[in-house]
Amino acid sequence: MANVSLQKVEKSYQNVHVVHGIDLDIDDGEFVVLVGPSGCGKSTTLRMVAGLERLTGGEIHIGERVVNDVPPRERDIAMVFQNYALYPHMTVAENMAYGLRLRKMDETEVKKRVAIAADMLDLNALLERRPQALSGGQRQRVAMGRAMVREPKVFLFDEPLSNLDAKLRVKMRAEIKKLHQMVRTTTIYVTHDQVEAMTLADRVVVMNKGRIEQVGPPQLLYHEP
Ligand code: ADP
Ligand code: ADP
User: Fold this and answer.
1) Nearest CA owner, ligand 1 atom 20
2) Distances (CA, A) of 158 to 14, 81, 162
3) Residue environment code for 104-129, b if the CB has 16+ CB neighbours within 10 A, otherwise e
4) How many angstroms separate the CA atoms of 116 and 2, rounded?
5) ipTM of the predicted structure?
6) If you take atom 23 of ligand 1, which residue's CA is the nearest one?
7) Consecutive 10-residue runs of the chain (225 residues): their mean pLDDT?
8) Is the CB of 39 under 6 A from ligand 1?
9) Does 72 sit in the ligand 2 pocket, CB within 6 Å?
10) Whose CA is nearest to atom 22 of ligand 1?
11) Residue 38 Cβ contacting ligand 1 at under 6 Å
């Protein structure tokens, strides 16, 4: 596990500032949700933590390390995307194992971790299927499994439920919450859905126009206009 600290984090493209000097300290094991209107800079902020975007100012710390120049693979993070990003030619088991095999992890350990994740996420019956033979909710569980087996210090979620129908969203929300209660991995979760934010967050960060507008407990959102 690790704490994450954003210090005066900035991002601009040419002359357009999309993130304006954000300061945010996230505790070890905390579940923080970034909310705010479309285009306010949530995803850009998350992608900077992931190492998928470079900062144009400030620093990001994960645990003891300043990670500004650390490539994504070496950050001890795992990210779950809205579009699942599964490999179509691989089975569910292979998809989950991929990131570990890439890192040349011992095969016994790979199998063990995939088995544990499959149990936790109820994927045992699906391990030999390919993504196209899965429902949206099942695909999203595989994407979570792929992140989980890495045993990262930090989980990053970028609108992971946006492509699911309302009923499935509610179910997956509960599963994500249960998973966090079990593993207690530091989590940063981006959504534009306030209900999702309220049910999942230990702390909600409301962004607007590239700035943090409010930080507080989920009840904070009840006072939004
Ligand atoms: P959110 O996740 O809150 O919807 P984003 O972080 O995706 O917002 O985007 C924030 C702003 O940055 C938007 O105005 C978007 O158009 C802009 N932006 C994102 N990526 C790029 C890019 N590669 N080039 C230029 N502008 C970008
Ligand atoms: P990992 O090595 O962590 O298992 P992958 O090999 O699956 O990651 O992906 C390589 C890089 O591409 C990672 O840094 C990941 O964050 C990024 N990436 C994967 N899927 C997507 C996506 N759908 N959108 C944006 N970036 C992605």
Assistant:
1) 44
2) 24, 5, 9
3) eeeeeebeebbbebbebbebeebbee
4) 22
5) 0.69
6) 13
7) 92 95 97 96 98 97 96 93 90 96 95 95 95 93 94 95 88 90 94 92 96 92 62
8) yes
9) yes
10) 13
11) yes
